[in-house]
Amino acid sequence: MLVELTEEKVQRNVWFDDASMEDLLQLYTKAKHVLELTCESLESQMPVKQRQELASAILQARNDYVDQSKRMKEANLQLVRTHREDALTGLIFSRYVACLDKVVKHSKLIAIAELAPVFFVKEYKLDRKSELVERPPLPKNGGFVVDKSIFEE
Length: 153
Description:
Layout: H1 2-11, H2 18-41, H3 48-81, H4 87-115
Helix pairs in contact: 2-3, 2-4, 3-4
């Protein structure tokens, strides 16, 4: 999504001023930090306590990100309202922020799942084999009975 957005930005000849670009880079850095913590938390051999501590760190980093994201969206909207930035530039900027917001939101959902005790798989269960279950074959027509008279006039 970011690649397509950047291509559109270049095609439409949209450029951000230095302050907006700096803001966007700072937000990207915060989103990258959240994503790095999330990737680290997915390490399969990590002890439960350490995973939960990382999940808490992800949520804290996410909260820091959200605070800055809200401030930036409002500041960008204010630039457009006061005509210091054109609407297309403001729209492209807000779409960049929305893409980063999605990444951070997914990281938040992963962290919440990691904090739940249901998330953890007991290591001894990883070696278990599932039982083979005999199932009858599916009917040829997919199991649906269609009354063809409803298609006739």
